[in-house]
Amino acid sequence: MTNFLVTGGAGFIGSNFVRYVLDNTDASVTVLDKLTYAGNRASLRGLPKDRFAFVQGDICNASLVHELVRDHDLVVHFAAESHNDNSLRDPSAFVTTNLIGTATLLEAVRRYGTRYHHISTDEVYGDLRLDDPDRFTEASPYNPSSPYSATKAGSDHLVRAWVRSFDVQATLSNCSNNYGPYQHVEKFIPRQITNVLNGGQPKLYGAGLNVRDWIHVDDHSAAVLLITAEGKIGETYLVGADGERSNKQVVETILELMGRSRTDYDHVTDRAGHDLRYAIDSSKLRMELGWQPLFSDFEAGLAATIAWYQANEAWWRPQKAEIENKYARQGK
């Protein structure tokens, strides 16, 4: 594939994937992004003009989507409303973007016979008990618990239906929680890092015992690129790096790496319906396609992420005050 169309490419994971493709292949990339609050043109600054183009637009705009898909070899679909807290306040944007937007893209790739890869989340599987040794696999039943995860589950089902009904050339991947550069400060890890950089304290939902399976965004990008090249059409691949940590452990590690006391954080009201634990079994991806994470040391990856936010204050500071004011109004 030499001509990528990346939806949501100005967002956190999308922009990192665009950079990864341009750094590791000879392909050209076009980004389609609506530039909602979560999209940031600054995340794409400095990319080679002869291999990169940006189009501001909505994936629900069928005429625009068809025009772009027609001229590309591969669509990688990152664009999504993705913040659980926002989905609990107003699910409507999640239904529109995650379901109608995905269906619009599927109709376009169906028309032009374009290869398609769909980015999803482990949250479609619901959660696991804290004392449960099991992990999610590709055979795990769907059990979403928020409007966000329910709409992502719905979009996954749409892709599978288009593969079976219309022979769309698609693969899917469900990834665990990403961290790394260019992540919006509303998200858990960058919010805590930037709170400390501001001289404040991290915020921990409830007791902080909820567990997430963390993966560095570069490892996710490498997995997606591999799946687009070698993945079997119609198959789903789970992407995870064995990075299970409780939220409390993550906050304590951030504080320690930034020279603060491990107990220097505030407890805030827990999220409604807060999933207990996510954990990914990525054996299929590793055994069938040979993928391995490079950032197997979570603390080292977290230290590199802290260093990026320290060095890129101009990128995150314009977002910070508004986000913290919003959280303060919610008691979080």
Q: How many domains make up the coordinates?
A: 2
CATH topology of the largest domain: Rossmann fold
Work out the number of β strands: 12
Over the alpha carbons, how many angstroms does the gyration radius reach? 19 Å
Average pLDDT level: 95
* Low-confidence regions: none
The biggest beta sheet reads: 7 strands, parallel
Q: CATH class of the largest domain, anyone?
A: Alpha Beta
Helix percent reads 40-55%
* Percentage of β-strand residues: 15-25%
Q: What's the CATH H-level superfamily name of the largest domain?
A: NAD(P)-binding Rossmann-like Domain
The assigned structural class equals alpha/beta
Strand order of the largest sheet: 3-2-1-4-5-6-10
CATH architecture grouping of the largest domain: 3-Layer(aba) Sandwich
Number of helices: 11
Helix/strand order, N-terminal first: EHEEHEHHEHEEHEEHEEHEHHH
Secondary-structure map:
Elements lengths: L2 E5 L4 H13 L3 E6 L18 E5 L5 H9 L3 E4 L6 H6 L2 H21 L2 E7 L25 H20 L3 E6 L1 E3 L8 H10 L5 E3 L5 E6 H14 L5 E4 L4 E3 H11 L8 E3 L14 H7 L8 H14 L1 H17 L3
Parallel strand pairs: 1-2, 1-4, 2-3, 4-5, 5-6, 6-10, 7-9, 8-12
Antiparallel strand pairs: 9-11
Helix pairs in contact: 1-7, 2-4, 4-5, 6-8, 6-10
